[in-house]
Amino acid sequence: MNNATQDTDTIRLQNLQLSHGVQAPDVWGKPKDQPALVSLTLTLRHGFGSAADSDALDASTIHYGELAKRIRANCAAAGQTVECVLVNVERIACGMAQKAPGRFILGRCGAEVTLPKASMYGDGVTLGRFSFFDDQGRASMHGRRVFTVKAIKVMAMIGVNDYERAAKQPIVATCSLHTDSSTEMNGGRGEQTAALFQLEQTLVQIIQETAFETLESLANFTVRQLQCRMLDRILTRGQVQLRLEKPRAIVWAEAPAVEVIRQIPGGNQSVTTPPTPVPFDAEAATSDDSWERVGALKNAMKRGAEPQNIRGLLVIKPYVRS
Question: What pLDDT is attached to residue 187?
Answer without folding.
Answer: 41
